[in-house]
Amino acid sequence: MDNRVKSALVASLNKYAEVSAINVEGFETELLAAFELDVNFMDKVTAFDVVFDSHPKFEELREVFFDLLMVNFFSSDVQKLEDDYLESDEWANIEEETIDRGTELLNLLLY
Length: 111
Description:
Layout: H1 3-20, H2 25-36, H3 41-54, H4 62-75, H5 89-97, H6 104-110
Helix pairs in contact: 2-3, 3-4
């Protein structure tokens, strides 16, 4: 997992916990584990969604943290793949499946 993404995730979760008076320990541990899985991107998305489904009080963070999952993919995971992976049919399918995920801010940054 990219250290900058991890720092952003932990800092934002801690601030959310402080403002909302919610304990984030179990959620944070599970979410970090999902980010750190050594699996393909869509399996990581599934694990990510399972964590949020198991912790509904964090639902409002789901799509913002999905952006972080994407940023982590681009900064860390993609380096393990072939150079032209982002031009492959597999990546085109992932883009199609996740087009409605995340926030518009990430879309502005990426495209």
